[in-house]
Amino acid sequence: MPTTAGARNGQAPATVGARNGQAPATDEARIGARRATAHRRGTSSADTVLATVVRAEDAPGPTLVLRLDQLPVGALALGGELARLRQALAGTAYADLHKIALYGPAIRTGTGTSAGPAIRTGPGTGPAIRTGRGPGPTPRPDLGYRFVQALPDRAFDFRAGCGHSLLACVVADGRPGPVTVHAVTTGDTVLSEREPQDGAAGHAYTLSFLKPPTAPGTLPTGRPVDVLLGVPVSLVRYGNPYVFVDACQFPEDEAALRHHLLALRAEAARVLGYPPRSALPKIAAFAAGPEGVAVRALTVGGWHPRLALTGAAALAAAGAIDGTVVPAPTGPVRTPGGTVTVSTAPDRVRVHHKRATVLGRLELPWRIHATA
Fold first, then answer.
1. E strands, 217-347, where?
2. Beta carbons within 8 Å of 222's beta carbon, 6+ residues apart
């Protein structure tokens, strides 16, 4: 069973002596010594890891954040290992957690155009993020990040991204300055910057997706409008692949809207080549009026309480492209849970005023997946 700090009566565990989002030195030292001993002995079939649980303010649930260089020797962080990790959460306040984020220092590999990021494993280390410099003026990343979506059928989707989980990694890492993160699963480079404090508890962040909204590939079909099941939609790949549709195409009944959106999402998945069980593409319905743009989005398992961070970025990118069905947001985007603020520039899309909080830390068992 996992050990927690202060988890009682179903309450989230308190942070263990952490400052500035950093794991306590005693826990890091204990895990580091255990890993060093395992490496000397050549035994690494089972170990423990220190996981940080972070809740982004607008996310449907918390994220389990794992630092790659603290994983046991030989860990691959694939489905079998992550399934056992989720099983270890049974009996904790996070038994239904569906988001996992793995991050670590970005390893720079040469200059010029890269063949793309990869996961490197080496003797005596856990997996690490490897990334090339990439073309153009995009800054070299400080951190590499991989997102894993746990699905209702207990499978995992390794294709999606999650902006709120990316922010969770930044907050768990505790770096005070601007942090550039390379999202391995989507290829995005995201700059996270703390905003000046406004008197509210904690810090708010602006996340900038460092790619022109009009860059090649933002429209995966090459068209600003596609017709799916007789309905005009815009398919956009920015942060995540998204389907955007005007809510006026459907009845106002919530159940009917959800039914139509699921049908459109399934058809878009077929068009874009995603398997039926995938979490992709995402989908959102919008309504434009005198008060601006309002959005209702689906996530894995139901309605999103507000709007995914990548969904906000994709919406802003779609609004910046001529001919899409999405109007350019001229003010805060309204959602059922509150407003989301976005802005665009020729070279990026920004999502503003995002917050995340460390809920606690767990020491969890990790069993290496046998590959031979």
1. 226-228, 231-238, 240-246, 282-289, 292-299, 302-303, 333-335, 338-345
2. none
Residue with tokens 């690494």: 44
Tokens matching residue 31: 């895990």
Q: What are phi and psi of 341, to 5 degrees?
A: -105, 130
- CA 342 → CA 23, 142, 233, 238, 325, distances in Å? 32, 24, 21, 14, 18
Per-residue pLDDT reduced to its tens digit, 163-219: 999 999 999 999 888 999 999 999 999 999 999 987 666 789 999 999 999 999 999
149 pLDDT exceeds 90? yes
The answer on pLDDT for 322 being more than 90 is yes
- The encoded tokens of residue 364 equal 């969890």
Please report the domains of the chain, with CATH numbers, ordered by start residue.
3-204+356-367 (3.10.310.10), 226-344 (3.10.310.10)
The beta strand positions in 177-257, using DSSP E, are 179-183, 189-194, 205-209, 226-228, 231-238, 240-246
Using DSSP, state whether 128 is helix, strand or coil. strand
Question: What pLDDT band is residue 62 in, cutting at 50, 70 and 90?
Answer: very high
* pLDDT-wise least confident of 5-19, 45-59, 105-119, 353-367: 5-19
- How many residues are there in the chain? 372
User: Which amino acid would we find at residue 1?
Assistant: M
End-to-end CA distance of the chain: 27
Give the number of other CB atoms < 10 A from CB of residue 33. 10
Taking all residues of the chain, what is their mean pLDDT, rounded to a whole number? 82
Is the backbone peptide bond immediately before 24 cis, with ω within 30 degrees of 0? no
Band (pLDDT 50/70/90 cuts) for residue 308 is very high
